Automatic annotation (TrEMBL):
PANTHER family: ANKYRIN REPEAT DOMAIN-CONTAINING PROTEIN 39 HOMOLOG-RELATED, HETEROKARYON INCOMPATIBILITY DOMAIN-CONTAINING PROTEIN. Residues 66-171 form the Heterokaryon incompatibility domain. It comes from Hyaloscypha variabilis (strain UAMH 11265 / GT02V1 / F). This is Heterokaryon incompatibility domain-containing protein. InterPro entries: HET, HetReg/Transcr_Mod. Pfam families: HET, Het-6_barrel. It comes from the Eukaryota.
């Protein structure tokens, strides 16, 4: 059979392709032998939000009821096919199953849109253009249908539980097939036509009401939306770990689910059916679910609305206190969805942070899939173009963040361990690898929530600002021209250690590195004794922090250490261990240090009012040393560096960056590789700028590649 040939479409005018699936009576009746999957592709002009209201209204009146299918692509293999006007298009098994499920549950022909089928994947120009229309597609759809896969016993149990607890249920189960009977098929098809027409008419009226509201208050009109800058705002992605107070099932509803016992087992089932489903790990589904008016989960022949699923999962996790692993996958997406419909747009950088664990088949889609949701203004740096390499796309979006913030902080705070080594990506070292989920990243020194940095390594005036030079989209996109001050070089590094070790073990390893530096502590026996005492004190904190049975612990009283005012080395070491902070928003104070060295974890733990403080201190030690290596510089300074750091690396302060960074000079070249951000004690608050003004340190150009 000949292959289908896509006809050109005019993406600039909002034109897309839509599929009409033919009705199959045998499939609807659950028969074993069914016909081929067939349909027709037609063109449709979307009521894109940039059109004048009159033109949008005219186009809305012509948009038919259609379902936008949201699904996981699955394997690259395409064992199934669909016949479009008698021509074949190979499709994946998951897409085939999703289309068949919609076809089976329909009464009559059904219109569907699905990205891989209706966008010519071999045409990079069309793919790039259609990306900017996908938001409009899912927003214009009568329903976004999320295909989770085939049904199961656990699936039926989960859907029934949600139904009984919320009273929201549409399709109770898969249709049970009947024996072959030609007469019943003909009769069913005859009856289905008027019933289907009536159902589509009712659906069209309901969707028309939504369209009228959208015409008056368009959620998709970016010019009427506000960008969410406040990290504490209602829909902010920096405070998604909160409950859902709006849903509280009645006593009558709770009585209907008493057979589920304490709900722990059903919570595990809900996690597996929904949150752990591959759908929740994909990038494109964020936009697909966020902009839709109506979202429905489909599992086999069952359907359930988004709000019902979200309400029940949040009720179990937050109200009942039953942990549901990975709940942020749904709470974060719900915040994005709520923001969109409240005409609030999240900054692209916030969206990328929130979706960092999500997967995209094409790495460029880690950016492109979020463009329709962002509050940032579209510009040349963000324009989708699949002809560009991954490195080009990622460096452009990084330049966008730099230009937007007038700062180099956006190149910091991302995972550097495990960066892609694929040479075809052409990824500059100063550009983050946005495919990494940040699970192996140290706690960022720079703020990731748009607050001001607690550090000021490059000062507080013009030195704290960075301006991109020249044409930001020129062919030399791999280079980033910076200016800064070379401070020192790495002389000694602690071993990286293991991923699972405690902060007590890390501290002991860091101290071993310091004590072994004989040229650093030569003849300072009293300091070594103080450091050893500190090691014992911190081991008690560590034992408390990681113990599953804190009440049964027995602690030794912390050994007395020398006063900090007489011991600069001890002071510097503790500051380095804690990154000179007690949290991401608070710098370490003298009072904090005195408290840490005098506190007895056992006594504090027994006093509930102070136990929160103890936990905060332990968390600060955990975050300060996690995935970092202790550094001693050539000039005797202490610091901590990311795991990829090496002896001989340069430590610099770049103008426009709030923290010092580690660079590596390329051999025989005046180019520098970016290794990562670092903490350098004594150089976190414009000290390098002061020394440069005095002539002790010199400014120089540092070309990053």
């Amino acid at each position: 059979m000949s292959a289908y040939t896509y006809q050109p479409i005019d993406s600039s005018q909002g034109e897309i392709r839509i599929l009409t699936l033919n009705f199959d009576a045998r499939l609807a009746l659950g028969r074993d032998r069914i016909g081929l999957l067939t349909g027709t592709l037609t063109k449709l002009l979307l009521p894109i939000s940039t059109l004048p209201r009159t033109q949008r209204a005219l186009r809305m009146s012509k948009v038919p009821v259609f379902h936008a299918l949201s699904y996981v692509w699955g394997e690259d293999e395409k064992p199934q096919e669909i016949l479009i006007d008698g021509k074949s298009i190979p499709i994946t098994q998951n897409l085939y199953d999703g289309l068949r499920a919609l076809q089976k549950n329909s009464v009559g022909p059904i219109r569907v849109w699905a990205d891989t089928l209706y966008i010519c994947q071999e045409d990079a120009v069309e793919r790039s253009a259609q990306i900017m229309l996908m938001r409009e597609v899912y927003h214009s759809a009568s329903e976004v249908s999320i295909w989770l896969g085939a049904n199961s016993e656990d699936g039926r149990r989960a859907f029934n539980f949600i139904s009984r607890l919320t009273g929201s249920f549409e399709e109770v189960d898969d249709f049970v097939g009947t024996e072959d009977n030609k007469g019943s098929e003909i009769l069913f098809e005859i009856c289905a036509k008027p019933i289907g027409a009536l159902a589509r008419g009712c659906f069209r009226i309901a969707h028309g009401v939504d369209q009228i509201w959208d015409l008056k208050y368009p959620a998709g009109l970016d010019s009427k939306a506000e960008i969410l800058i406040d990290p504490d705002g209602g829909n902010s992605l920096h405070c998604v770990e909160s409950g859902n107070p709006r849903f509280q099932p009645s006593a009558q509803r709770l009585a209907k689910v008493t057979d589920e016992g304490d709900f722990f087992h059903i919570a595990d089932i809900l996690s597996r059916i929904f949150i752990q489903n591959d759908w929740f790990s994909r990038m494109w589904v964020v936009q697909e679910a966020a902009v839709a008016d109506t979202v429905e989960f489909h599992l086999g022949g069952m359907g359930m609305g988004w709000d019902a699923v979200f309400d029940v999962i949040c009720y179990l996790h937050y109200t009942r206190g039953i942990p549901i692993g990975g709940i942020r996958r749904i709470t974060g997406l719900h915040r994005i969805r709520s923001g969109w419909h409240d005409r609030q747009r999240h900054p692209l950088q916030d969206l990328m942070r929130e979706c960092r664990y999500r997967i995209a088949t094409d790495p460029r889609d880690k950016i492109y899939s979020l463009l329709g949701l962002m509050g940032d203004h579209m510009n040349d740096l963000l324009q989708p173009d699949y002809s560009k390499s991954v490195g080009n796309v990622y460096s452009n979006v990084t330049r966008h963040f730099i230009s937007q913030s007038e700062s180099l902080d956006p190149i910091c705070g991302w995972q550097t361990h495990g960066r892609s080594t694929d040479t075809s990506w052409e990824l500059p070292t100063w550009t983050p690898d946005y495919t990494l989920d940040q699970e192996h990243a140290p706690s960022p020194l720079v703020p990731i929530d748009r607050r001001s940095s607690i550090y000021a390594a490059s000062g507080y005036d013009h030195g704290s600002k960075f301006q991109l030079s020249g044409d930001s989209v020129h062919p030399g996109w791999t280079q980033l021209q910076t200016h800064g001050i070379y401070i020192d070089s790495v002389k000694r590094l602690s071993n990286p250690g293991t991923e699972t070790e405690t902060f007590g073990s890390k501290t002991a390893r860091w101290l071993s590195t310091l004590i072994s530096a004989e040229e650093f502590l030569h003849g300072m026996k009293d300091v070594q004794i103080s450091l050893e005492g500190l090691d014992k004190t911190l081991s008690e904190y560590s034992r408390y922090h990681y113990s599953p049975d804190r009440a049964g612990l027995q602690f030794k009283s912390p050994e007395k250490t020398r006063p900090l005012k007489d011991d600069q080395i001890l002071d510097a070491f503790i500051h380095t261990l804690l990154l000179s902070s007690i949290s991401s928003r608070e710098r370490l104070t003298k009072h904090d240090l005195d408290e840490i060295l005098s506190m007895n974890p056992l006594t504090t733990f027994s006093q509930s009012k102070q136990s929160v403080r103890l936990d905060k201190i332990c968390q600060a030690f955990e975050e300060g040393s996690k995935r970092r290596r202790f550094v001693i510089t050539q000039n005797g300074c202490m610091g901590s560096a990311p795991q990829p750091a090496e002896e001989g690396d340069m430590i610099c302060v770049l103008y426009g960056c709030s923290v010092p960074v580690i660079l590596r000079k390329r051999e025989d070249q005046d180019y520098y590789e970016f290794v990562g951000e670092c903490y350098l004690h004594g150089f976190m608050d414009a000290e390098a700028i002061a020394l440069q003004i005095k002539g002790v340190l010199k400014e120089q150009e540092l070309m990053l590649v």
